[in-house]
Design brief:
Strand 19 (about 435-445) and strand 20 form a beta hairpin. The strands form six sheets. The protein has a 14-stranded mixed beta sheet with strand order 5-6-3-2-1-4-7-14-11-8-9-10-13-12. The protein is globular and about 90 Å long. Helix 2 crosses helix 4 (about 60-75). It is an alpha+beta fold.
Length: about 650
């Protein structure tokens, strides 16, 4: 916890760059960045981490800090102090970086570390974290290196000693018997220096057996291959090049013929369970072989854990997969058969290697951010960082998830993923020419505006969002269409995708370091940040106090269609009775320091002002008396 005086913190924040001082949230983000990675430490960190990790790291990026601050505000609706926010950020960052530079590693791991270029899988945990937390979930992934293989004394039970690239500890794994043929002392592939991916493991703690942590056998193990290694190249050529998807015969497979196949992972997705499969969970991996033929690889029940080990673009080698008819697998497809993970199946993987691209830091970072990273301690030395190295995905798009600076609308261009934008909503509507749930959101920042298409899995799920609201949206994709137009997409179910409405965030309103009080006279339709004003209620116009039906999911009003059902005016969804709520719709006069403004008020804010719920108001008996249709609040002037 930071033991600092909040008044000092606020003074420091206000002393940040003039370009961000107009928006207290942006000012605090820049201040937090300076606290987590002070200028005087940057040079030392760059030298140490370039030597140890072979990559550029300079503290947490702008997107990481912003998302953490907003998540904290969501968790603490009553508000937090600047010290608490900084403490949360520091603790989370230190936890994330703790295992980046291990104290001691095996020599074979050190050699692999120099070649390591792939991106960590989403559920990866380190061996050190297993010892620290005394816990390992079934869905956790171990990206491990075999340090040693040995027999348990007096038995025929094989154990593997595993390490990883981020830990100083090792851990023993009881090897599942389906892999015993791979640990032959003479030519077994599971030997020291071999990389494996592992999931579905149960942890046996030190108190349960030998006094050592050990992993119980798991069927869900994938062996990594490197085509630059002669032995691996020979294995691929000898075992996986003769069969293709076109050569598979289901009759031959039923007769005992086995196949060894090699293909690229094109996509990974959930398969709905219907018909024969009932409620069993299923996942499908679409594979494409060297001839361009596609085939489904199905995982059932607990097998879906295997999908955690794959990534799109990786090359997968399947030895003896089970060949199942599409009818038996209950899959609606034009293919006669599909692949499954059988009892004799063994998997080999060549992970997708993320290539990197140097991205020139845009001029906007100087103009709009006044970024500390672009200036050394001596301003006369000019820019210190002019380029940032970022990873590319299998389609050649640059991943901006870890981009250290804020991304502006003017920075958007073709082949960008993981992009985040912070700005004001200028327009929002649903696309009517599609059955899918797609909304167009026009977001504006200080450099311009862009229309983004929001794709929802089922229906709108972001709550109330309206014009003038400030939003932070992450996980955007950018590409140029055939018509040479820039298109920006956002998918609700994509990893890293989020959309937070700052204007409806109580935790932000109650956190003084993230806002400043403004006057009503300062309000403008061109404002680029959230305005918080202290006002008093001047008058509620009696004739304008009424209630309307609204859509509970998006907070907008609903109307009755010509055919009878109720339809939301915003998301155009036919509303079921459970989704319809009664809300206020009233006109109020607000005053502050001589300025007055007429405002429409609805929802929870209106109920708080009138100190009565919309349902209670609607059922007031005096409102049903002819000639008496008004409700006079007793707090006018407060």
């Amino acid at each position: 916890m930071y033991s600092v005086d909040n008044r000092v913190l606020i003074d420091d924040i206000n002393g940040c760059s003039d370009t961000t001082s107009e928006d207290p949230i942006l000012a605090f983000i820049e201040y937090a960045s300076s606290v987590l990675c002070p200028l005087e430490e940057q040079g030392r960190l760059e030298e140490e981490e370039e030597e140890d990790l072979g990559e550029y790291r300079n503290g947490p990026g702008w997107n990481w800090i912003t998302s953490r601050i907003l998540k904290t505000c969501i968790s603490y609706s009553s508000g937090v102090t600047a010290a608490i926010l900084l403490s949360e950020l520091s603790q989370a960052w230190n936890e994330q970086q703790r295992y980046k530079v291990p104290k001691k590693r095996s020599e074979c791991i050190n050699k692999l570390k120099k070649k390591y270029r792939r991106k960590k899988l989403p559920n990866t945990v380190s061996i050190d974290s297993i010892y620290e937390k005394n816990f390992l979930s079934l869905s956790s992934v171990l990206e491990a290196v075999v340090v040693d293989t040995f027999l348990l004394p007096g038995t025929n039970i094989y154990l593997l000693t595993l390490g990883d690239l981020w830990s100083s500890n090792t851990i023993d794994l009881f090897l599942h018997r389906r892999y015993y043929n791979l640990v032959n002392p003479g030519n077994g592939i599971l030997k020291g220096g071999r990389e494996i991916f592992l999931t579905g493991c149960y942890l046996r703690t030190a108190t349960e057996g030998s006094g050592h942590y050990r992993l119980l056998p798991s069927e869900y193990l994938v062996i990594l291959l490197d085509e630059d290694e002669d032995d691996d190249a020979m294995l691929l050529g000898a075992q996986f090049c003769s069969d293709s998807f076109s050569s598979i015969s289901i009759d031959a497979a039923n007769g005992g013929v086995s196949y060894s196949l090699f293909a690229r992972v094109e996509s990974i997705g959930i398969l709905e369970s219907k018909g024969k499969s009932g409620d069993v969970q299923r996942k499908q991996i679409i594979l494409v072989d060297n001839d361009g033929v596609k085939l489904r690889f199905l995982l059932w029940g607990e097998q879906i854990l295997l999908a955690n080990l794959f990534s799109v673009g990786s090359m997968l080698a399947l030895d003896r997969p089970f060949i199942a008819s599409s009818e038996d697998s209950d899959v609606a497809t034009c293919e006669e058969f599909c692949l499954e993970y059988g009892s004799a199946t063994q998997l080999y993987l060549m992970p997708f290697i993320q290539h990197e691209e140097q991205v020139t830091v845009a001029l906007t970072q100087n103009v709009y951010q006044g970024s500390r990273l672009l200036t050394t301690l001596d301003p006369s030395q000019g820019a210190k960082v002019s380029q940032v190295t970022l990873p590319c995905d299998s389609h050649g798009s640059v991943d901006f998830s870890d981009y250290p600076f804020r991304t502006f609308v003017s920075d958007l261009h073709d082949k960008m993923t993981g992009v985040s934008l912070y700005g004001v909503v200028r327009d929002i509507f649903r696309e009517n020419n599609t059955a899918e749930s797609i909304f167009c959101l026009r977001i504006e920042d200080s450099t311009g505006a862009i229309c983004t298409k929001l794709h929802f899995a089922k229906s709108w799920s972001l709550g109330r969002l309206g014009l003038g609201h400030t939003v932070y949206i992450s996980g955007l994709r950018c590409f140029v269409t055939k018509q040479k137009l820039l298109e920006v997409l956002w998918f609700e179910d994509e990893v890293g995708g989020s959309c937070i409405n700052l204007s409806c965030l109580p935790g932000l309103l109650n956190t003084s370091c993230l806002h400043k009080l403004s006057c009503l006279s300062d309000l403008s339709t061109k404002m680029q940040s959230i305005y918080i004003c202290q006002v008093w209620l001047d008058l509620v116009e009696h004739c304008q106090v009424n209630t309307r039906s609204s859509h509970a999911i998006c907070g907008h009003f609903i109307s009755k269609t010509a055919s009878g059902p109720l339809e939301c005016n915003f998301c155009h969804r036919i509303c079921e009775d459970a989704e319809v709520v009664r809300t206020f719709h009233l006109k109020i006069n607000l005053a502050s320091n001589g300025a007055r403004v007429l405002a429409w008020c609805t929802g929870h804010a209106a109920s708080e002002l009138l100190q009565i719920s919309a349902d209670e108001f609607y059922n007031l008996p005096e409102l049903n008396i002819p000639g008496r249709t008004s409700y006079v609040p007793f707090f006018t002037g407060e």
